[in-house]
Amino acid sequence: MLSHTTHPGNIGAAARAMKTMGLQHLYLINPRYFPDPQASAMAAGADDVLQNAVVCSTIDEALQGVVFTVAMTARLRDISIAVKTPREAMPEVLQQAATQPVALLFGTEMSGLTNEEMGKAQLGVNIPSNPEFSSLNIAAAVQVVAYELAVAAQSFTPAISQIEPATHERIEAYMPIWKRPCLRSVFYHAEPDPADAAPAPSVLAHASGRRGDQHPARHADSNNRVQCSPEKDVMRKNIRMFKKS
Predict the structure, then answer these.
(1) Burial class (CB in 10 A: 0-12, 13-18, 19+), 76
(2) Is the peptide bond preceding residue 35 cis, with omega within 30 degrees of 0?
(3) Which of 53, 142, 157, 190 could, after both became Cys, cross-link 14 (CB 3.0–4.6 A)?
(4) Helix (H, G, I), strand (E, B) or coil at 242
(5) Bigger pLDDT: 230 vs 8
(6) Based on the number of CB atoms within 10 Å of its own CB, is 133 exposed (0-12), middle (13-18) or buried (19 or more)?
(7) Which is it for strands 68-72 and 102-105: parallel, antiparallel or unpaired?
(8) Whether 158 contacts 94, CB under 8 Å
(9) Backbone angles phi, psi at 243, to 5 degrees
């Protein structure tokens, strides 16, 4: 996913980087210019990736159905989630993508991801670079991450999880409920109402419930059924590249 991309050439170059590594699902969050001839020119043959790109107006719209979001960041401080290198993170990305949609989230060219966007992610990825000159083009960042993903996939065998992760929209919908006891106990120093008791969001993403066949009452919606497959092409289909402009 590319968020608020300002230069259309970067969208095309990112599409080219994706296709060379076998990725095809490109999501664009509020790009400044798209479609655009410069994007097509820089795609250099990856026109199908551009033609099938999904344009969204907000990050929440782009993350619909996603259960695991990986945010690319140059920051190593003041981040509440774990930050790994691409080589360290890609096996975990593949494990998640074996059963559910995963998003690789890249920020705008000038300033990267906002704090709000970082807050949507479960894992951060930092590409090691020269500390005296760490400016990396967005398409180059996509190429590095896509390459590490392709290398990791060559020797990866997914384990079958017994937990069905919560989707992005389910966690977002639960946030107002979770905040009520926090506000009452932290700001007013009162005992939280037992009726408001709820697990923290970090727990929700990994413990939203077991598979539907074990707890059918929790997963009546057929759209939330888990479809497990160890095939690598399924993992690729479950990985979304988001570019915000």
Answers:
(1) exposed
(2) yes
(3) 142
(4) strand
(5) 8
(6) exposed
(7) parallel
(8) yes
(9) -125, 120
Query: Per-residue pLDDT for 202 more than 50?
Result: no
Q: How many Å apart are CA 215 and CA 37, to the nearest integer?
A: 51
| Residue whose entry in the numeric block shows the structure tokens 């929790």 | 218
Q: How far apart are alpha carbons 115 and 187 in whole angstroms?
A: 23
State the Rg of the chain over Cα: 19
Average pLDDT over the chain reads 80
Measured between alpha carbons, how far is 1 from 70 in angstroms, rounded to an integer? 10
Q: How far is CA 22 from CA 86, 127, 234, 236, in A?
A: 17, 20, 12, 7
CA–CA distances in Å: residue 185 to residues 181, 182, 244: 6, 5, 37
Q: Are 68 and 124 in contact (CB under 8 A)?
A: no
Cβ-in-10-Å burial (0-12, 13-18, 19+) of 83 comes to: middle
Q: How far apart are CA 12 and CA 33, in angstroms?
A: 11
- The predicted model scores a pTM of 0.69
What single-letter amino acid sits at 130? N
Element (H, E) at 62: helix 59-62
Which of 16-20, 54-58, 72-76, 80-84 comes out lowest in average pLDDT? 72-76
Backbone φ/ψ region at 71: left (φ over 0), alpha (ψ -120 to 50), beta: beta
Strand, helix or coil for residue 18: helix
Torsional sign, CA 125, 126, 128, 133: positive
DSSP for residue 205:
T
